[in-house]
From TrEMBL, chain A:
One of its GO terms (biological process) is glycine betaine transport. This is ABC transporter permease. Its main location: membrane. Signal peptide: none annotated. Belongs to the binding-protein-dependent transport system permease family. One of its GO terms (cellular component) is plasma membrane. It is a multi-pass membrane protein. It holds the Pfam family BPD_transp_1.
Length: 221, 390
């Protein structure tokens, strides 16, 4: 049996397409959960990154925090929180958010901080207010880099949400954990394929987003 | 809006690290004129300029615009009343050319349509084709970007324009064009322009008044360009002006008072009799002109008379003409151009033409030198030794 056989067997089995353990349900769970985690991380990381980048202060503190957060083992944190907090969505959400904030925060900070100074100087010189400079001059130019930070955060969240199944949470990781437990390799491979597909879809979505959100004048440089 | 008067009164700037960039600088910047701040790198030009729009806060003295202290105005309102142009233009990469130019009008609450109309008008004013309106900065050359920078600064019609080395990053030919464009725009608009450069030639070309700064932000001399060239305040300024300041100073003397001799001109279809009647004292040549009156070249006077034929006849044909070289426009070009023509002429005599390029006379280096001395004594400035300067 090859991997291809496992994949075709998994996806052609009609039973895998219905019910609470069906592929659609698991995909929706996975995506929903990833979106919530990414949304919270962005809500924290973007404003702090934008403001610190704009004022050019707090870079060192940010780098330190980010390194610390990166050093935290997501899986260890997940198990610890599960033990501490019991079976709920929060122990799963927190590690994902902690995982997603550093790439968003650090790239946003760097993206804004390294914006070419002359246009910013010109904007100040024409009497533009500070926040208007941030959103109308710096952000549009920093956007490609900011989107790349969001993209790596999103991919990490989508991949890591798989391990949430370990603490009895759904998502496509369910297939991998259950498959391993049941020694059902068809299920394991099917689950892994779904995770890979989700990561690729995330990449594709961000590609589209930068096409539409980034000005042609910035993209072409 | 027409330019305002800027008074810089004993202004100083000490940076937090203790650097004194400007020290007790006083300058009266006349309205509706271009005042250039020039000096070596690090002498405080940028600091001075940026104190006027409060990008840098002064630490001593005061600056008045039309009598009003700039510290009494809200800072963003003050900046909106002044156009600001920097090196490399500093255009917004994500905005089209039209949107770049319309930035301040939009900030002031103009409608999109009105701002757009204004952008088009300004593109024409600064010599840009309006078909470029929808392009992005990356699609423009450095010189074109700088034109957009000037247009953007002029968009809300501010009375004051601050320019910090605006043309330093473009090549000399483009720079020359931009300088000429600036002078033309200024003639039409009459702004008060403070222009920073480290290039003394640029200062002399564009400035109505020139403030030479020395390191530490002290004023070395403040004078119109011709006066600066003829009477530098001290050895340091003289040094900064460079070696051939006498020659460069001639750019400020016109040729209207220069007498040119029409006797040295002969038509290409002249008869032998006509040829023999033409002569200029001290000149062994005659300037042959075509039927349209434009110069063709120099012919040896004696040979022309000997051959007894018309200048363009079989024996005195164009092959025997010396090239007449560059001619100067009488009354329009400066004494510097006239002298240059004479120096480069194979006969040592310069050819004067009218606006249509028709020869009106010839003039020798000595006669130009005499005119230079006369011009200097009339202005009361020190005479320039043309012999040495040449
Ligand atoms: N932010 C600053 N902090 C400390 N010193 C500065 C600062 N900006 C400029 N300087 C110093 O002030 C002096 C004048 O600078 P500047 O006005 O930029 O000169 P210029 O424009 O004539 O080259 C220089 O010695 C420069 O190093
Ligand atoms: Mg400077």
């Amino acid at each position: 049996m090859t991997v291809i056989h496992f994949i075709t067997a998994f996806f052609s089995d009609g039973a895998h397409w219905h019910g609470y353990d069906g592929i659609p349900t698991r995909l929706v769970e996975h995506v929903e959960f990833s979106l919530i985690a990414l949304g919270i991380a962005a809500a924290v990381g973007l404003p702090i990154g934008l403001l610190t980048g704009h004022y050019g202060r707090g870079g060192n503190a940010l780098a330190l925090l980010a390194t610390a957060a990166r050093a935290l083992p997501s899986f260890g944190l997940l198990v610890l929180l599960f033990v501490l907090m019991g079976l709920s969505k929060l122990p799963v959400l927190i590690p994902l958010v902690v995982l997603a904030i550093p790439p968003i925060l650090v790239t946003t900070y760097e993206a804004v901080r390294t914006v070419d100074p002359p246009p910013v100087d010109a904007a100040r010189g024409m009497g533009m207010h500070s926040m208007k400079i941030l959103f109308q001059v710096e952000l549009p130019v920093a956007l490609p880099l900011i989107l790349s930070g969001l993209r790596s955060a999103a991919i990490q969240v989508v991949s890591t949400a798989t391990i949430a199944a370990y603490v009895s949470f759904g998502g496509v990781g369910r297939y991998i954990i259950d498959g391993l437990y049941q020694r059902n390799y068809e299920k394991v491979v099917g689950g892994a394929t779904l995770v890979a597909a989700l990561a690729l879809a995330t990449l594709g979505l961000f590609g589209l987003a930068s096409r539409f959100a980034v000005s042609r004048g910035v993209r072409q440089r | 809006m027409i330019g305002a008067l800027i008074s810089i009164e004993a202004v100083s700037k000490r940076y937090p690290d203790g650097t004194v960039a400007v020290d007790g600088l006083s300058l009266e910047v006349p309205d509706r004129s271009i005042t250039v701040l020039v000096g070596p790198s690090g002498c405080g030009k940028t600091t001075t300029l940026r104190m006027i729009n409060r990008m840098i806060e002064l630490t001593g003295g005061r600056i008045l615009i039309d009598g009003e202290d700039i510290q009494h105005k809200p800072v963003n309102a003050l900046r909106r009343s002044m156009g600001y142009v920097i090196q490399n233009a500093g255009l917004f990469q994500h905005r089209t050319i039209a949107d770049n130019i319309g930035t301040v009008p939009r900030m002031l609450g103009w409608s999109k349509a009105k701002a757009r109309e204004r952008s088009m008008e300004l593109m024409e004013r600064v010599g840009l084709d309006t078909s470029m309106a929808k392009r992005y900065p990356y699609q423009l050359s450095g010189g074109q970007q700088q034109r957009v920078g000037v247009a953007r600064a002029l968009a809300a019609d501010p009375p004051v324009l601050l320019m910090d080395e605006p043309f330093s990053a473009v090549d000399p030919v483009v720079r020359r064009g931009l300088q000429e464009e600036l002078l033309r725009i200024q003639e039409e608009l009459g702004k008060t322009i403070v222009f920073v450069t480290h290039d003394i030639d640029e200062a002399i070309r564009v400035g109505d008044m020139i403030a030479v700064l020395r390191t530490g932000g002290r004023l070395a001399q403040y004078a119109p360009p011709d006066q600066l060239l003829s009477t530098p305040a001290d050895a340091a300024v003289e040094d900064f002006l460079g070696a051939d300041r006498g020659i460069r100073g001639l750019s400020f003397f016109g040729t209207d008072a220069l007498t040119v001799d029409p006797g040295g001109i002969v038509a290409s279809d002249a008869t032998a009799q006509q040829v023999s009647s033409r002569a200029t004292e001290g000149l062994g040549h005659l300037l042959v002109v075509g039927v349209d009156g434009r110069p063709l070249g120099w012919a040896d006077a004696a040979r022309l008379r000997e051959s007894g034929a018309a200048a363009a006849g079989p024996k005195g044909g164009p092959a025997q003409l010396l090239p007449h070289g560059q001619a100067f426009r009488h009354g329009e070009d400066s004494l510097r151009v006239a002298l240059d023509c004479a120096v480069l002429s194979p006969t040592g005599w310069a050819v004067a033409v009218d606006g249509e390029g028709r020869a009106v006379g010839v003039v020798s280096q000595e006669q130009i030198a005499a005119a230079i001395r006369a011009a200097h004594s009339q202005r009361g400035t020190a005479p320039v030794d043309v012999g040495a300067a040449r």
